[in-house]
Amino acid sequence: MPFKRWITYRSLSSQSYDIVISGGGMVGTAVAAALGNSPLLKNKKLLLLEAAPRKEYAKSSTFSNRVSALSPASRDFLKGIGAWKLIEDSGRFKAVNKMYVWDACSGSDIQFTQTEESDDHLAYLVENDLSVHSLSTLLSQQADRVEVAYGTTVTQYGTDNITSPSQPMKISLSSGQTISARLVIGADGFNSLARRSMGIKTTSWNYDQVGVVATLKLDKQEDGNVTAWQRFLPTGPIAVLPLSDDTSSLVWSTTPSHAKHLLALSPEMFVDELNHALIDNSKMDGMVSIVEDQYKKLLEKFGSFATSHEDQRTQPLPPTVLDIDKESRAKFPYGMMHADKYVAPRLALVGDACHRVHPLAGQGVNLGFGDAECLVRTIVNAVSLGADIGSSEHLVEYETERQRHVVATTAGIDGLYRLYSNNWTPVVLARSLGLMTVNALTPLKRLFMQHAQT
């Protein structure tokens, strides 16, 4: 998805701001747009700083290889600030009605389906560039509310000057200017300078996996390509996520050496290896299959509790990949990081600045949008009470609420990664029986769905 880039160098309109958002990615731009959308903040000076030059969005006939599966909660947040309508009007998104997950080492699987009583889809696949463009369009409509400075990097946060609760934070910019803010929102990514400046410690590690992404061309899908597919291979999960009626996005998590091999293949050989990986059953454990068959019979005795849909008892075939966008293949590393604190005097962290997760559950940007919604709500509440927006007394409410959700989600995702990275027969058996149980018991499956969608 092409962009035109340019930088406009100019002085900022003020040396003093109420709120400065550092980082103009999806989450940072969402925070700025949501703040600018609040009537209670109409008299506040708001500034968004983005190190990259401004980009002009141009709709392309091909899809970007960087997409996100937005949860219903993220969709609702974007709808509330006006960005979702712009995404809808573009026609460049795909609603997911079904999700099928299965284990290559066993016969266990689980299917999630949009319920008849809910208008929500399971997820919405949107290109990252389109999300940023829609949010940036909102900011251009709020030019009198939110100032935006592209091509401007923060070189230093003057944290030493905060010697009393009433003092603002000083911010030194690459342009040579120095400004101050009553509150800095650090949306500046995994290597956040805002976080490091305040001495906030993190717990982190790298996974021995990388993600290979590509845009796929599929054969015709009877359901209109509304199903997301994920298979757990011995080397890592492989996900095929719908983008249009005949196009999907690939995220293939694998070892660094295998990723290097995949990127070196010709497009035709890559497609062959991908299709084989989606249907190959040579890694199936015979002992596990025998126990699974007996366990299925046991579950059938709990018919009043088990899911009754006929499609839950059959294993559908994944789509056949016909071709790939030749320029779409790329790779990126995986890691986990969690900040000990999300807030400090005059500072609040959001998105990758305070947490990073394995993408196997597609929760990265959803956690970030959850941060954005919660932080904006906390700030608006503080303003309505006439409180200091940069006071830790109010910011800690944001930290407490978000850490309860993020820590649980991060631990769950890391646990899944470790569970499916172990192919010892007893472990394969345990996870298979667990997956079968969740799939059979409707109330338990709904709990998993509810957590993933918030």
Automatic annotation (TrEMBL):
Residue stretches making up the FAD-binding domain: 18-259, 325-409
First-tier enzyme category under EC: oxidoreductase
Primary site of residence: mitochondrion
Listed SUPFAM superfamilies: FAD/NAD(P)-binding domain
Membrane topology of the entry: Peripheral membrane protein
Membrane recorded as keyword: yes
Subunit structure: Component of a multi-subunit COQ enzyme complex.
Family affiliation: Belongs to the UbiH/COQ6 family.
Role this protein plays: FAD-dependent monooxygenase required for two non-consecutive steps during ubiquinone biosynthesis. Required for the C5-ring hydroxylation during ubiquinone biosynthesis by catalyzing the hydroxylation of 4-hydroxy-3-(all-trans-polyprenyl)benzoic acid to 3,4-dihydroxy-5-(all-trans-polyprenyl)benzoic acid. Also acts downstream of coq4, for the C1-hydroxylation during ubiquinone biosynthesis by catalyzing the hydroxylation of 2-methoxy-6-(all-trans-polyprenyl)phenol to 2-methoxy-6-(all-trans-polyprenyl)benzene-1,4-diol.
Protein name as it appears in the record: Ubiquinone biosynthesis monooxygenase COQ6, mitochondrial
